[in-house]
From TrEMBL:
SUPFAM superfamilies in the cross-refs: CheY-like (SSF52172)
Lineage summary: Bacteria, Pseudomonadati, Pseudomonadota, Betaproteobacteria, Rhodocyclales
Protein's name according to its UniProt entry: Response regulatory domain-containing protein
Gene3D superfamilies xref list: 3.40.50.2300
Organism: Dechloromonas hankyongensis
Matches recorded under InterPro entries: CheY-like_superfamily, Sig_transdc_resp-reg_receiver
Domain Response regulatory: 30-67
Length: 67
């Protein structure tokens, strides 16, 4: 069985005018995907990149913590 968990900051669901930002600073749109299945990582990367995210990949939790 495969499980998928998505952890997004609450700010991701706020209207842009509600998110406090420093003047002239763009919010980060970087996502770290961790999975030991390369095909899952590839699919997640394609999906997230289509939505404008920069995607970092890791094959293990240890590798993810190093990123």
């Amino acid at each position: 069985m495969t499980a998928f968990e998505s952890l997004l900051a609450a700010k991701a669901f706020m209207h842009k005018s509600e998110v406090p930002l420093k003047s002239g600073v763009e919010p980060s749109r970087t996502v770290l995907c961790v999975d030991d299945e390369l095909n899952v990582l590839a699919a997640l990367r394609r999906l997230l990149q289509r939505h404008g995210y920069e995607v970092l990949l890791a094959n293990s939790g240890e590798e993810g913590l190093q990123r």
